[in-house]
Amino acid sequence: MNEREHKPTTSQSEIAGLRGSVIRFYGKMLDFIITILIFLMLVTLLYAVWSLIGDVYTAFFSLHQEQVISSLVSDVLSVFVLIELFRTFTDYLEYHRIRLRVLAEVAIVFVLRELFIGLYAHRLGPLDLLATAALLAVLIAARVAAIQFVPKRDS
């Protein structure tokens, strides 16, 4: 056996070192971007809660109760969607991957938000409800599968 076949050449080790540096830089930049997104999500969440408080105040003194309450329901459900998205970003920052369970929960909350708004506005027909039920069933099955088949952590 030739000794030269087993030793990496200098250029190969330089490329491996450069590759490692690029990957570390990429990871740091990705963490920085996710941190900025989390900050923006937090500001958005605070604004949504402030808007929600304003809608509650308006609901007490408004003559058009039905419109205000419809807006209030939409805002409350939007805050729940934002909370779930916020949790997705913080989980990514912690685990450096998007977990299917959390993503399924965000999708479920979003679909339920649209369902509740549509039901409250009386604009969903039977086929819409059937399609939404099928979508929810698939999302719930994905969440259950994500819980049952948890990937093993790399050591």
Describe the structure.
By secondary structure, the protein is mainly α. The protein is about 85% helix and about 0% strand. It is built from five helices and no strands. It has helices at about 5, 10-60, 65-95, 100-120, 125-150. The protein is flat. The relative contact order is 0.07.
Q: Compute the average pLDDT.
A: 82
Helix content: over 70%
Estimated share of beta-strand residues: under 5%
Query: Which stretches are low in confidence, meaning pLDDT under 50 for 5 or more residues running?
Result: none
What gap, in angstroms, lies between the N and C termini? 34 Å
Radius of gyration: 24 Å
The secondary-structure class comes to mainly alpha
Specify the biggest β-sheet: none
Q: Estimate the global geometry from the Cα principal axes.
A: flat
How is this fold's topology laid out?
Elements: H1 3-6, H2 10-61, H3 65-95, H4 100-120, H5 126-148
Helix pairs in contact: 2-3, 3-4, 4-5
List keywords for this structure.
single chain, 155 residues, mainly alpha, 85% helix, flat
Short recap of the structure:
This protein has five helices and no strands. The chain has 155 residues and is mainly α. 3% of the residues are buried.
